[in-house]
Every structure is written in structure tokens, then in C-alpha cells.
Amino acid sequence: MLKHVVLSILVISLITLLVLGIAATTMRVRTYHAVYGSNVDLVMVDIDDDRATLWLSISQTLPIPTSYENVECFKKIIETVLMFDPVALGDYATNLTIRNVKAFVVDARLLSILKTFAGYPSVVANRSKIIDRIVRKYTLAETTCITSFAGYSRRVWIVVNVKSGSSTVSKSVPLRLASWRSQCVLPLHPSNASRILLAIEVDLRRSKLIDTANNRTLNLKNVLLTGNATMVFNVLSLIESSTMSEFHVKYLLVVTMQQIYRAIAIVCICAAILCIYYYRRPEELEPLLRIFRRFSARRILRRSYG
Amino acid sequence: MRRSLDLAMVREVLTHASYVMDQLLRGFVVVVCLLAAFQSFATIASLPYVENLKMGSVITFIGMLAYVTFQMTSLVEELGRGEAMLYLAHGLTKRCYLASWILILCVVPIVVFVLSIVVPIAIIAPSLLNNVEIPTLIAYTVLHLATFSSILFLLALSKRRGLVVALGMAMTFLLPIALSLATYYFTSLAPILGIVCPYYYYLTYETSSKLRICPSPPSIGLASLVLTMILIYACFVKVKKLDV
């Protein structure tokens, strides 16, 4: 009976590997390297109770549980964010080969993870100050980039800072358009989605960022959203449900190379066990071969007689 | 002496079970392939939330119940055609014969189903295995499959193929509907149905607030475990008197 169990594990891992492969190649899902190697415009790091989520641009999410090997990567991300040099991250991380990353968005709770790392006591103490500095950094970067908008539109950033105002996060969420140093506070409500959108649009028009020839209003790739990722996601969902068709907020399937390696490892182990088993008892292989023989016999019959 | 006798019996059971499994290998492989495909896709699609995985596993679970029902007809046909007599004439006792079928139609489906949940998770997101939801999910599916198989075993020993298929299908497809109807209209009936289908009861209990006044899923699970043991004992009693 053991051979049937091993056979089951082998088949299940093979099929899982197949599904992972299909998902990675056909369903707009990218592997680790592909995701990080592409032109990622926005990385948002959000920490929940038991997992961290990297938000890659608006439409791609990469859930990374903090409990296993990614802690080191997170350490490097945090390091890089704190050094205010996100573009250099690609050189830091070995597991996450991030290239062409324009900016990072850091959730306040992410900094609490620093408690687990030695050597960052001051960071935890100055949490709000660091966030302010990060926001200011990107605001400055964006201001610089606006001047060269005509030359290269991908580098334009609009910083929309969504923060949960109180412990009851559902109703009052201040929204700040930090890029123009002006603040407009809007409660998070479906009716306000259009106002948020309008606010962004107005600012875009004021700065002549709209490509009137192509009638493009807003390209999300150029929007940097900071704050609680869930809040941002909610805002985007609200906006998406309004008139803007350019917004595509979706959860995508994510396949990583580690998953594929794991599947291959299990397949190899099971195959090795079965090989040893059938080598010692070749007569036990007969029922398994019978299945293939039956299939091939049918195929021959079908070919011969139609 | 007794120990060696027991070992010999276990060997007999395993040998016969292995032989029958080889006969049913094609269906087994097909089912494992389908289970793995559904389950691995559900695991990828549901990440990072376990709740979606729970819903995804319902489809594979229904498929597994249907598989067990149809394989149960092999036992009925074997008893009906007199093939069982052939094996019993070669020194295999009735108890060993039944035990080998229990191994094939109760233990193996449980093991395969658990593997179909655990292996994709172990590959795709191993950290999810630490989540308390996954062992709970597995425990209820195991209990449900065991109860389901033991009920069908008792019917199969009566050699009535139609009854086995009809009841198996009803328990697979109609029982969830009956349970959800009972939840809304006859709430006191829901725990009684839940004893026969602890997994469906667990899912309904999680989603419906109407069942809060009813016994919790662990107590229902315990009741269905006792029911399974009684049914299996009844099967062994019945097979002794069986005229093959």
C-alpha cells in the first residue's frame, strides 16, 4: 500500500508542478525573477498580523509570509528604504532581484518588524519621523520629476497618502495629495470615490499633466500611494467602481521559483523511492504498465480501424 | 503465537488490498490527478486566505465522495458475482477480506484526500500548514469520509448496488442542501444531519449564525466518530453472517 501512497504524492506534486507552470506562463502570472525584473513602478509593503505583502504596481500583489525565508529579504528592503535609495535595492537583495523600482511605500506597521532585528532601536523610537522623511523624500523626487515630465512620463509621481485616522478606520480616512503640498481631507466613503478621483484629476490638469491629445486622464503607473495598504486598496476599489476605466485593481496569482523548486524536489524524492521499489520488485510494475498498455492498445486500434 | 497470527493477518490484508488496488489503479490515478489539479489551483488562487481554500476543497471533497460511492459498487459486484468466494476459498478470512476493502475504500481515499490538500500547500505556501484552520479542515474531512464510507459499507454488504449508488449520491449532493435548509427552517434537525456529514456541518456552522444555538462542530465530530466506530463494528458482525 505504501507504493500507492508514494505514487499519489508523486502524481499530486507532478500535477501541482504542472499547474504552477501553466499559471506562470499563461495566466499573466510571473515568477519571482520575472516580477522583479520587469519595470515595477510601485512597491508597497504592508504587514498584517502573520504575513507581509509586497504590492508590485497597483495590479500585482505578492504575498510573502514573514515566517520563513523572506525575513532576510525584508530586512534588506527595510535597510534600503531607510537609506532612501530604493533604486539600489536590486544590488542588495539576492532573492528578490528588484530592478527599476521607482519607489517604496512603507506601512507604519512594517517598522514594528524592526523590533525583531537587532541594531535598529532608534528606528522604532522615531517611527513617525522616519515615515515623514520617506514621504518628503518622494515628494521632493516627484517635484523634481514634474519638471521633466514632457521628457519621460514614467517618472512622474503623485503621492496620495491615505492614513487611517482613528481606531475605527471605516469612516474617516484623511487623504492627502502630498505632491502639491496641499491637503484635502476626505472621509473614505463610496460617494467620495469620485471626489478623490476629481482631486487627482484637478491637480493633474493644473499641472498640465494630462495628455489631451490622447485624452488620457491618469495613468496609475505614475501614482504612488502611501499608507495602510488595505486602505489604499479600498480607495482604489472605490475609484475603480466609479467612472475611471484605467484602474484595474485585481489580485493576481503569483508563482515563485521557490514553489517550483519545492515541487521538483518532492517529485524527485518520490520518483527515487518508486524506482528503488520497482527495481527490487519488477513484477509490481505490471499493474502500472497495464494502464499505459491499455491506452496505447486503444490508440493503435483507433488508428488501424478508425 | 497470537502476535505472529496478527502479523500474518495484517500481511494478508495488505496483500489483498494491494492486489485489489492494482485492479482499481486506473480509476485511482485519474481521481488523484483530478484532485491534485483542482486542489493545487485552489491553493494558488486562494492565497493568502485560508477561507477560500476551504471553499475550494469542497469541490474536490464532493468528487472524492462520488469516487468512493462508485468504487463501493466494485465490492457489491464482487460479492454478487461470487468472486469473493474465490478469495475466501484461498485461506483469506471474512474479517481480513472486509478489512482490506475498508483499507481500500476508507483509509486510502482519506490518505489521498489529505495528501491532495497538504502536498500543494507544502509546495506553494508551507507556512500555511502552521495555520490552525488547515488541521481542523483535514480533521473534519477525515471524519466525514470515514462516516460516509462506513455507512456505504454496511449497505454494500447487503449486495444491493442500486441502493448503494442512490444513497451515496444522495449523501454527496443532497445532504448539503438538506443541511442548509435545515439550518434555516428546522434548526434542531441540523445537528442530526451534521453527525452524518461533519464537514458540511462545520462549513455551515462557520458561515451561518443560525447554528450558534446548536452543538459546536467538535462535539458533532465526536458523535460522528462514535457512529463510525459503531458502523464499522456492525460491518464486521454482518460480514461474519454473510453468505458468499
How would you summarize this macromolecular structure in one to three sentences?
The complex is a heterodimer of chains A (306) and B (244). By secondary structure, chain A is α/β, with parallel strands linked by helices.
Oligomer category:
heterodimer
If you compute it from the alpha carbons, what radius of gyration of chain A comes out, rounded to the nearest whole angstrom?
25 Å
Radius of gyration of chain B from the CA trace? 19 Å
* Percent of residues in beta strands of chain A: 5-15%
Please give the largest β-sheet of chain A.
4 strands, mixed
- Low-pLDDT runs of 5+ residues of chain B are none
Could you give the distance between the termini of chain A?
39 Å
Shape of chain B: globular
Order of strands, main sheet of chain A, comes to: 3-2-1-4
The pLDDT mean of chain A sits at 46
Helix/sheet category of chain A: alpha/beta
DSSP strand count of chain B: 0
**Main sheet of chain B?**
none
Q: What coarse outline of chain A follows from CA principal-axis ratios?
A: elongated
State the end-to-end distance of chain B. 30 Å
Give the key terms.
heterodimer, A: 306 residues, alpha/beta, 8 strands, 11% strand, B: 244 residues, mainly alpha, 10 helices, 0% strand
Structure notes:
- The complex is a heterodimer of chains A (306) and B (244).
- Chain A has helices at 2-26, 32-37, 70-82, 89-92, 121-125, 127-147, 193-206, 229-241, 257-280, 286-305, and strands at residues 43-47, 51-56, 60-65, 104-106, 158-162, 175-177, 182-183, 223-227.
- In chain A, β1 (43-47) and β2 (51-56) form a beta hairpin.
- The longest helix of chain A has 25 residues, at 2-26.
- Residues 27-254 of chain A have low confidence and may be disordered.
- By secondary structure, chain A is an alpha/beta fold.
- In chain A, the strands form two sheets. Chain A has a four-stranded mixed sheet with strand order 3-2-1-4, with no helix packed on it. In chain A, strands 7-6-5-8 form a four-stranded mixed sheet, sandwiched between helices.
- Chain B is mostly helical.
- In chain B, α5 runs antiparallel to α6, α6 (133-156) packs across α7 (161-185) and α8 crosses α9.
- Chain B is globular.
- The interface between A and B is large, with 37 and 39 residues.
